[in-house]
Design brief:
The structure is a single chain. Helix 3 (66-80) packs across helix 5, helix 5 packs across helix 7 and helix 6 (181-195) packs across helix 7 (198-211). The protein has a single domain, classed as Tgt2/MlaC (Nuclear Transport Factor 2, Chain: A, Roll). The protein has 216 residues and is α+β, with helices and mostly antiparallel strands. The protein has a five-stranded antiparallel β-sheet with strand order 1-2-3-4-5. The protein is globular. It contains seven helices and five strands; from the N terminus they run H-H-H-H-H-E-E-E-E-E-H-H.
Length: 216
């Protein structure tokens, strides 16, 4: 059975293992004018700085404010990730077989579950670490921003894949130590669809959505 919920990790090695089975779970070419939008590295930097500011806010420290930090991080993720592209990529060839209603429901479920899982990852693993911005690769309709999270006794490479949408660069995937989150979704979703059906996948996602811990 595919597992869609986040499990607390005790180390980054466990985090990488979890991401490799995460959730045991773009079309038109758009040109972006540098004068109209943040460049990719600036977009990633501003997103991470906003997260760090929230995580280190002295007025929001402690477990009693976790839900408040959680809500703030989910909002930041919603503003910086391109869920339309992510949902399409996560389903791969199966996306073209869906009708509009099925696509809409899948995208809504995918966004909710991704935000919840990625928020928990950020809450638990991104606090006061130093982030190095190392390289930006610009292609016609994609950008890769390479960063490194510097922790005690380890350096974690984290790459952000961005796509142009509505006149700005926006994140469509995160690759942690070579592990693509969206590709892992695609592998897991494909396994469920091939073994069972798309409707079965939707039902599993609905059940996981219901099981998401709600802020008190």
């Amino acid at each position: 059975m595919v597992c869609f919920f986040w499990r607390e990790m005790g180390s980054f090695m466990k985090l990488k293992i979890c991401l490799s089975v995460l959730f045991c779970i773009i079309g038109l070419a758009i040109q972006v004018s540098p004068g109209r939008a943040e460049m990719p590295t600036a977009r990633v930097r501003s997103m991470l700085e906003e997260v760090m500011a929230l995580q280190t806010n002295p007025q929001l420290r402690g477990p009693e404010f976790r839900n408040q930090r959680r809500a703030g991080i989910k909002k930041i993720i919603a503003q910086n990730f391109e869920f339309n592209a992510m949902a399409r990529h996560a389903l791969g060839q199966h996306w073209d077989k869906l009708n509009e209603a099925e696509r809409a429901e899948f995208k809504a479920l995918f966004q909710d579950l991704f935000q919840d899982s990625y928020t928990k990852l950020v809450l638990d693993f991104l606090k006061q670490e130093k982030i190095l911005y190392q390289k930006e690769e610009l292609l016609q309709n994609q950008a890769i921003v390479k960063t490194t999270i510097v922790r005690v006794n380890e350096e974690i490479p984290v790459d952000y894949s961005l796509t142009p949408a509505q006149g700005e660069w926006i994140v469509e995937d995160v690759i942690i130590d070579g592990v693509s989150i969206v590709r892992n979704y695609q592998r897991s979703f494909t396994q469920v669809i091939q073994r069972e059906s798309f409707n079965s996948l939707l039902q599993k996602m609905r059940l996981q959505q219901q099981a998401i811990e709600k802020p008190s």
